[in-house]
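Example record

Each entry pairs one chain with its bound ligand, nicotinamide-adenine-dinucleotide.
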Amino acid sequence: MTQSAAIHPPARIAVIGLGNMGRPMAACLVHAGYQVVGFDTFAEARNKYVETGGTATATAVDAVHGAAAVITLLPDGKIVRAAIDGIKDRLKPGTVVIDMSSSAPMGTRTLGEELIAAGVAFIDAPVSGGVKRAIDGSLAIMAGGDGASIDRAEPVLKAMGKSIFRTGPLGSGHAAKALNNYVSAAGLAAAVEAVAIGGRFGIEPEVLVDVLNASTGRNNSTENKLKQFVIPEKYTTGFSLALMAKDIRTADELAHQIGVSAPLADEVAALWDAAMQELGPTADHVEIGRFLTAKH
Ligand code: NAD
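Structure tokens for the complex follow.
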């Protein structure tokens, strides 16, 4: 394979971070015919992946050995940088590093520029769709970086996602992802508040959700989260409140960094930070329902 060729199966791919998203996304790559080697600092995450038939190594350096692509699926951009710093000297020439975590875009730009200057290709390609769509390989993927590197990574991305958006230069995928989650979180919080207000007035929660879904208040949360998780108090989406709060904070910080006034993002970020402080880092993001309802 030349250094500019697209990465097709059975190329070797390292997946760093075998959490709620990393495990099913790695499984999609295996299903597509790639040789996938996973790594996670947390032995339990590695074991869970191995129990489902995956291959994992005890060190990141072993996982990236000979890899044509290295995918990171880690909690945030600072952790991604630390993980990449530990392996970047071990990558073979032509490796494409793909950060599919939801990282902060400014840090991504700096990290990407450093790697590219050192001869390593880098793109940001965060995802949306949650664990369910990670399992069936139908994620939305937002790819930022130079077109040639995205071309090379495209077969790999297509094994995990249904729609692949080219968002622009380095960091733009991460910016798009954070902005998406800001809108998603604002929509979820608004829907939860509406259901609580309606309930106090005597409208059954399910009835109000039906009204929203047939009307202009409809959003992803009214369709896929209210009746399924929030109203029955089933907190099992696999997307933590801490990660959602981080994403909204990322979007709000981006606004401040580039001098855009975003008063609603300021409020939504503060609200989700407060929920995280009260409910703790292991809470599921749909527990925002419990947090907001307790305030009524
Ligand atoms: P998770 O917490 O379930 O998994 C993260 C994993 O990274 C953990 O297993 C942890 O042990 C591991 N880890 C931490 N530091 C590490 C290191 N230095 N080296 C190797 N492994 C390390 O998180 P997740 O839900 O899988 O999310 C991963 C990323 O994807 C996050 O950035 C998140 O915001 C984003 N995301 C999550 C969802 C979702 O629905 N869960 C959806 C879209 C995007």
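Residues 172-201 form the longest helix (30 residues).
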